[in-house]
Amino acid sequence: MLKNTKYAVGIVTSSYYTDRGRSGNNFKFMYDGGHIIELKANGEYTKGRKYLVAFDSLNIENGVILLEKYDITDSLIQHGIYPKYNMYDETWSLIKIPFQYDKSDIEYDLKKVYEGL
């Protein structure tokens, strides 16, 4: 996954929950021109907020990670990036992410999360 990583906008669609020993939030994102994926994320996210999602651009089955540290809700508005039909269809390579985050921090955090899986 780390070689073919792309980034997209993940939207948290549920409040934090605990169910049968599992806890977290639901989120969804769009990739590859219209495919929508809905998944569960461990952690405590805020419903309605948008976060960077990292995914394998060649094979989505290799992994998807919602990056908790990168809440991009306000950055989307500042950069004039708006949803189409309630979803964001933009995806970026690491160097093309338009937000004011240190790209090496994003790469480091992704590796740290990926190694912890």
| Estimated structural class | alpha+beta
Order of helices and strands: EEEEEEHEH
What Rg is obtained from the alpha carbons, in whole angstroms? 13 Å
The overall pLDDT, averaged over residues, is 91
Tell me the number of strands.
Answer: 7
What helical percentage do the residues reach? 10-25%
Q: Give the end-to-end Cα distance, rounded to a whole number of Å.
A: 12 Å
* Low-confidence runs: none
**DSSP helical segment count:** 2
- What general form does the structure show? globular
Largest sheet: 7 strands, antiparallel
Characterise this structure.
By secondary structure, this protein is an alpha+beta fold. 16% of the residues lie in helices and 38% in strands. It is built from two helices and seven strands, in the order E-E-E-E-E-E-H-E-H. It has helices at residues 73-78, 103-115, and strands spanning 5-12, 17-19, 22-31, 35-41, 50-56, 64-71, 91-92. Strands 1, 2, 3, 4, 5, 6 and 7 form a seven-stranded antiparallel beta sheet that branches. Strand 5 (50-56) and strand 6 form a beta hairpin. The longest helix has 13 residues, at 103-115. The radius of gyration is 13 Å and the shape is globular. 23% of the residues are buried.
